[in-house]
Amino acid sequence: MKKSILFVFTMLFTIILSAQDGPEIWMTYELKVKKGMNEEFEAAAAKKMKKFNNSTETAMYTFNIMDGENQGMYSRVIGWKDWDFMNSQDDRSDELKYWSEKVDPFIEESTGWKVWRRLDWISYNWKPENQFKYMLVNKRIIKPGKDQDVINFLRRLKMVQEKNNFSGIVGVFRVMSGGNTNEYIICEGFNSYGESGSYPDSEKSEEELYNDMFGWEAYRRDAGLYNDALEMYSRTTERHHLNMELSTQIN
């Protein structure tokens, strides 16, 4: 039986959304396990997942952070939600009690939740049915008043990707609450290192394809404005590996 993993991560820039559609909401936080207790933590967390997070409605996902200042920590993710989820009054007391008693004793510290909304119109190929084992998480912070330069470049990149059948998976998210609302992340999902996305129908580079659509030197101009719109020390990238045992699996 094929396992289908409904999947991970989230954000938005300043755009007008119709009231009935609303944002696609995601939530994340990171935790650090006490030294020498990863095995105990994962065993306890896996039991909690099977007991309380075994459906599409209750799904959660866990990633191991492989490098950077958060190396060794776990990233916990809830995704594909909407305002109904945020307004829900479902009683989660049993789940929270179980975590507090059975899992929390193995945790040294954790961050608070961040709530994100995903930019569907800038994301590419980010769909529940698309599965991946690894992810690059590119964290960025926009300078005040520079949203448009970021939006324009990412919007045009998606147009190039769609026209030329880009094989990758890209999700773009921006903080709604719990952090700097000028923070966004670009998440690139893939299953093998070195195969994170390509243009199979063309021998041209992405820059060349971009210029074909938007004119001579358009890529350098737009990429330059994009880079200038970012805070200097905000450009970090982490490798995240999906932890299957600590992620919801739907048969």
Work out the number of β strands. 9
CATH architecture of the domain at 120-126 and 140-234: 2-Layer Sandwich
Series of H and E elements: EHEEHHEEEHEEHHE
Rounded Rg: 19 Å
- Beta fraction of the residues? 25-35%
The CATH topology of the domain at 120-126 and 140-234 comes to Alpha-Beta Plaits
Assigned CATH class of the domain at 120-126 and 140-234 = Alpha Beta
User: For the residues shown, what is the average pLDDT?
Assistant: 91
Topology overview:
Layout: E1 25-33, H1 38-52, E2 61-65, E3 74-81, H2 83-87, H3 93-103, E4 107-110, E5 114-118, E6 134-141, H4 147-163, E7 169-177, E8 183-190, H5 206-214, H6 218-228, E9 236-242
Antiparallel strand pairs: 1-3, 1-4, 1-5, 2-3, 2-9, 5-7, 6-8, 6-9, 7-8
Commentary on this structure:
- Helices cover 27% and strands 25% of the residues.
- With 251 residues, it is an alpha+beta fold.
- It has a domain at 120-126 and 140-234: Alpha-Beta Plaits (2-Layer Sandwich), CATH 3.30.70.
- The protein has an eight-stranded antiparallel barrel.
- Helix 1 (38-52) packs antiparallel against helix 3 and helix 4 (147-163) packs antiparallel against helix 6.
- The longest helix is centred in the middle third of the chain and has 17 residues, at 147-163.
Quickly list its features:
single chain, 251 residues, alpha+beta, Alpha-Beta Plaits, eight-stranded antiparallel beta barrel, 27% helix, elongated, disordered N terminus
